[in-house]
Amino acid sequence: MVDNHNFDEVFRRLKSLLAPYANRLVVTTDQPRNFYLDTPYLDKNNKRLFFGAVQVRKSYVSFYLMPVYMFPGLLEGVSAGLRKRMQGKSCFNFRSIDETAFAELAGLVKKGFQKLESEKVITSEDIVDI
Question: What kind of architecture, by CATH, is found in domain 7-126?
Fold first, then answer.
């Protein structure tokens, strides 16, 4: 069995990578072990686009970043260490704090946000009051 006593701290640290963007995105869930952000953009079905999330799971903490799924080129140059943490195309799993991976992931979140801005998915008019 995995010792998940530090999952709350891992969650807190991963959430802090998304939190700086919360004022420009839509927080759809903000619970102690579950945090979701969507874009303000509405698609043709009037649904918001998923941006990212952090969830505490049974055996790990998952960090989701949808821009890397939408724009796979964002993953060019990502380290082998961070790639090893990937499950699928936009999920990264952690069992403990990894400063190197967290720093790299912070840069990836920033690049993903900037890519959505450059594609006009997020605009300066999209500032959302929470």
Answer: Alpha-Beta Complex (3.90)
> What are the domain boundaries of the chain?
7-126
pLDDT digits (tens, 9 = 90+) for 77-99: 999 999 999 999 999 999 999 99
**DSSP helix/strand/coil, 26:** strand
The pTM of the full predicted model, rounded to 2 decimals, is 0.91
